[in-house]
Specification:
The complex is a heterotrimer of chains A (305), B (338) and C (312).
Chain A: H1 28-38, H2 40-62, H3 94-130, H4 132-146, H5 150-161, H6 165-192, H7 195-202, H8 207-243, H9 255-261, H10 265-268, H11 271-299
Chain B: E1 3-16, E2 19-32, E3 36-40, H1 47-54, E4 63-72, E5 75-76, H2 82-88, E6 93-96, H3 100-103, H4 110-122, H5 126-139, H6 145-148, H7 158-170, E7 176-180, H8 188-205, E8 208-213, H9 216-222, E9 225-230, E10 233-239, H10 240-245, H11 250-258, H12 298-302, E11 307-309, E12 315-317, H13 323-333
Helix pairs in contact in B: 4-5, 4-7, 5-7, 7-8
Chain C: H1 2-29, H2 44-53, H3 60-72, H4 87-122, H5 127-141, H6 144-158, H7 170-200, H8 203-210, H9 215-252, H10 258-268, H11 271-299, H12 301-306
Helix pairs in contact in C: 1-11, 4-5, 4-7, 4-9, 4-10, 5-7, 6-7, 6-9, 7-9, 8-9, 9-10, 9-11, 10-11
Chain lengths: 305, 338, 312
């Protein structure tokens, strides 16, 4: 190759990018949001949840029927223009009941998850932060409680307290906080001993500041994931209890009780009575699971590409 | 000396979401029988990729060999069908990795991990395999080899784990041993032991070694020839004495002078090479080191440097070797009267 | 390893005692006395006799002591709803059936789940991986009773492949076992896949390839062993899952297992049945978890020799 002589002069160094950063830096939250956005399935889940929420509020309102009104004439009719989801064997409109039941089921799910969240955070946070003997004792208790079969205990509590909306929420919360407490405590312990917290301490930061600025932002990701994933567990548990006859009592209805009442229809052919509540239970659980999975992947920096 | 492995113009590209990375951009070297060659360079220069590519260890969908040939035993390893390549691995060419703790299986006894290679390649009985395994453990310096065969990874110290890995690699008596940063994860005293072990083994078995490392101390002790890599290319290669006492490429010079020395004057600051290696998504048209080179010329940015032979098999790829550049440099030096 | 087993055994006893105590006091905290409710219209004398027979007239602590004493002798007491039947007899009738169902379900779940997870991991990001994972997500979202209904409706009623209910032949086992196993399959498949993917990128897998071992050897001998370990720890929870799931499934399929007695006991507020079956279930579960722990310690050589689990 012939190379011209004039090229043999010292190189100008202005356009050098030897130290330039190649990829734009993203904050933790920006990165997480971007990753979540790329996860189509998780977004679908989110949209479904939002839609379900809207319908739960609007459904019984826009429907021309009342959820409890019985009528012998219109018993067990298949879906029609009059009754979009058909009627049940008391002549009640299934569409209205489904959305009424949505309120109940979603309420139970969210409340149980939230209560677990608060109890778990406080318990786990204290145990992790104080550490030492306090932590040991608190975690011993948790370990033993963890060994108890969740649903069995819930069933027992329900038998004792009697059925009803409030008791269900209490029973679910009483058992579900354990997982959250463990997770939070693990996170707090990890953070406590991590180097950037030590660094902050040596610079004289007060405990509250450390909690606010360092511990919280990092734990929130995991906590959000956990809360999202505990909703379907609660919804499932409520449906399960209804199947055992321990659920919500009439005239209130949840998806679980509707499905339970509709069991005989497998043989009788009135499919819409079982299909709609069962479908929406599954759809809701699916949506929350998918969203929770998506959030988990989004918050995990290891999956960064 | 007989040529064992001839790598010519090897090119390896990685497909990622961000684009294609040219990890290896035309690497050539020759390994002779009984020789130890070292490939040195910074992290990311492509030396590990080169080593793994010799054994075709990188899955095709991750990193593909897109050019060049690798001649071994009369066959081109680049074109060799996977089944035949598998025959070669562990029996003709072996590799050991940096961290023995993660490179060996924690749930299988180390005896089994040695023996499975023997049985797979030599198709002998288990008792014969056991005998060979015991022998090789002895060779790498592990005491009571028979009883240790049944033990697991976590029951050995760091240095011993490395020896086990070497044992596994050598048990089928390969012609070539590739060692990827074998001393990097070890304490200094253990490092010295392992280097000595390599020398012993080479003496006893005559195996040829390709050593990947960024530790120039190890290179000085064990290598016959050195290949200096930067940004996917070999910028300088030659006998170890030439490279250490007569480095010609500014990068090699920078590497050597950046090593902190115990006998250096404390008041003189360390001299690191400023800057960071280039982004291999879009490699520069000219010399990749130009941006960090204090002697860079316009031609360096414009064209890839040509290879210059410096006698006794010392080769440099640098525009400073061009007579016109030498003229410019001497002209620059004389006015100042140094 | 022995110290590990010993510690687990003690912890098992403690948890067991805890749940027995909890169950006992919870049951006795429930409002009302089994003989005073639902207007049974029992004459006072008869009620008093019944109370004495069931020891309900004694102080709580004494009842507790008596209960524990009976437990140690494996006597779970008589049923309060049906005078002649005892809880022990109910369990003797129902447990074999439930056990069969549960065993089939868990074995099926383990085999299918692991196979699905391995295949998905090996064909990562290709169609079968995607399909498998969608099935898995559906599996953990669709409750077993919904699935059971679907299975009955289509496979039994419409296509008449299997009987709709009750028990008897192997055909009767298929649908309920399938319904029970679906969610565990999904959980196992997801976990196996995640672990396999992680293990396949591990450095010791690269070493195995550098030795020239065949892909099959690498997957089954090296990768799978390490990937499965976490699944073993999950076994305990899965068994609990199948156990509680069986209540509903047995009800839907009208299977004469223990679930039937348990659910009936709940509906009748038959406290000794509820207590007895709860204690039995819990003992079973906790014992299973203990067995799983021991199994894990045998498989993982790190515990076998050092008695300690790996940190983190």
């Amino acid at each position: 190759m012939i190379v011209s002589d004039e090229l043999f002069t010292p190189m100008r160094k202005e356009n050098l990018s030897a130290e330039a950063i190649v990829r734009p830096q993203l904050t933790y939250w920006q990165g997480a949001w971007l990753r979540l956005r790329g996860n189509k399935l998780a977004l679908v889940g989110l949209v479904i949840i939002i839609l379900l929420g809207v319908m739960a509020i609007a459904g019984p309102i826009i429907s021309p029927h009342d959820y409890a009104k019985q009528s012998v004439i219109t018993k067990n009719q298949s879906p029609s223009a009059e009754n979009w989801f058909g009627t049940d064997d008391f002549g009640r409109d299934v569409f209205t009941r489904v959305w009424y039941g949505a309120r109940i089921s979603l309420f139970v799910g969210l409340m149980a998850a939230l209560i677990d969240f608060f109890i778990g955070i406080i318990y786990g946070g204290i145990a992790g932060y104080l550490g030492g003997r306090v932590d040991n004792i608190m975690m011993r208790i948790v370990d033993i409680l963890y060994g108890l079969p969740y649903l069995l205990v819930v069933i027992l509590l329900m038998v004792v307290m009697g059925s009803g909306l409030l008791t269900i929420i209490v029973a679910l919360s009483a058992t579900g906080w354990i997982g959250m407490a463990r997770t939070v405590r693990g996170q707090v312990l990890q953070m406590k001993n991590s180097e950037y917290v030590l660094a902050a301490k040596t610079m004289g930061a007060k405990p509250f500041y450390i909690v606010r600025k360092h511990l919280l932002p990092n734990t929130i990701g995991i906590i959000i994931v956990y809360v999202t994933l505990s909703v379907p567990t609660a919804i499932f548990a409520e449906a399960f209890l209804s199947f055992l006859g321990l659920g919500i009592q009439p005239p209130m209805a949840s998806w679980g009780t509707m499905a339970n009442d509709a069991l005989p229809t497998i043989l009788s052919g009135h499919w819409w009575r079982l299909f709609f509540p069962a479908f929406f239970i599954s759809l809701t659980m699916l949506a929350f699971n998918v969203l929770g999975d998506g959030l988990r992947d989004a918050f995990d920096p290891k999956t960064r590409r | 000396m007989e040529k064992l492995l001839e790598v010519d113009g090897l090119q390896v590209a990685f497909k990622t979401h961000g684009g294609t990375i040219q990890a290896v951009r035309g690497v050539s070297f020759t390994l002779h029988k009984g020789e130890t060659i070292a490939i040195v360079g910074e992290s990311g220069c492509g030396k590990s990729v080169t080593a793994k590519s010799i054994m075709r260890l990188i899955p095709e969908h991750i990193g593909k060999i897109v050019g060049g040939t690798m001649l071994f035993q009369g066959k081109d390893l680049v074109q060799l069908p996977e089944k035949e390549m598998r025959e070669m691995r562990g029996s003709q060419i072996s590799m050991i990795f940096q961290d023995a703790m993660t490179s060996l299986n924690p749930t299988i006894s180390i005896g089994e991990q040695i023996m499975e290679g023997i049985i797979r390649h030599q198709k002998v009985s288990r008792s014969e395999a056991k005998r060979q395994a015991t022998e090789i453990l002895q060779l790498v310096g592990i005491a009571n080899p028979e009883s240790r065969l049944k033990q697991y990874l976590h029951q050995f110290s760091g240095g011993m784990r490395q020896r086990i890995m070497i044992a596994i690699a050598l048990v089928c008596k390969p012609s070539i041993l590739i060692a990827d940063e074998p001393t990097t994860a070890l304490d200094v005293t253990i490092q010295a032991q392992i280097v000595e072990l390599f020398q012993n083994i080479q003496r006893k078995t005559g195996v040829s070694i390709i050593m990947i490392t960024h530790d120039l101390g190890v290179v000085a002790k064990i290598a016959d020839r050195v290949n200096v890599m930067y940004a996917g290319k070999v910028v300088e290669s030659g006998p170890v004495s030439e490279i250490f006492y007569n480095p010609q490429h500014p990068y090699t010079q920078g590497l050597l002078s950046s090593m902190p020395r115990l006998d250096a004057d404390r008041n003189i600051p360390l001299s690191p090479i400023p800057g960071t290696p280039p982004d291999l998504f879009a490699p520069p048209a000219g010399c990749a080191f130009a941006a960090r080179c204090e002697y860079a010329l316009e031609v360096c940015r414009a064209h890839q440097p040509e290879e210059t032979q410096l006698g006794s098999k010392h080769v440099v790829s640098c525009w400073l070797q061009d007579p016109r550049a030498k003229k410019l440099l001497s002209a620059q030096q004389s006015p100042t009267g140094t | 390893m022995l110290s590990f087993i010993l510690r687990r055994f003690l912890s098992m006893i403690v948890t067991l005692w805890l749940i027995i105590t909890l169950t006992f006091f919870l049951m006795h905290a429930a409002p009302g006395n089994p003989f005073e409710k639902e207007g049974k219209g029992l004459p006072d004398a008869v009620a008093a006799n019944l109370n004495a027979f069931y020891n309900l007239d004694k102080p709580l602590i004494v009842q507790y002591g008596l209960y524990l004493k009976n437990l140690v002798q494996f006597d779970l007491g008589p049923s309060t709803a049906s005078g002649s039947d005892t809880v022990n007899k109910m369990i003797a009738r129902g447990f074999p059936v439930s056990f069969q169902l549960g065993l089939v379900a868990i074995l099926f779940a383990i085999v299918t789940g692991i196979a699905l997870g391995v295949v998905a991991a090996l064909r990562h990001n290709r169609l079968i991986d995607y399909v498998a994972m969608v099935i898995a997500v559906i599996g953990i979202s669709v409750p077993s009773f919904v699935l059971a209904s679907l299975l009955i409706k289509y496979l039994a009623v419409e296509w008449k492949l299997f009987p709709t209910a009750t028990w008897g032949t192997w055909q009767h086992v298929v649908l309920p076992a399938l319904a029970l196993a679906f969610s565990p399959i999904a959980i196992i498949a997801r976990l196996t896949r995640t672990n396999m993917l992680e293990v396949l990128t591990a450095e010791y897998i690269e070493t195995a390839r550098a030795k020239g071992l065949s892909p099959a050897t690498i997957v089954f001998k090296h990768a799978l062993r390490n990937a499965i370990l976490p699944v073993v720890t999950l076994l305990g929870a899965l068994i609990a899952n199948i156990l509680t799931g069986s209540f509903v499934i047995e009800k839907i399929f009208a299977i004469p297992g223990m679930g039937k007695y348990f659910v009936a006991g709940i509906n009748n507020r038959d406290y000794s049945v509820i207590m007895g079956t709860t204690v039995f279930y819990s003992t079973l579960l906790i014992f299973m978890m203990f067995v799983v722990d021991v199994l894990y310690s045998i498989i993982d050589p790190r515990i076998k020799f050092h008695g300690k689990e790996r940190e983190g």
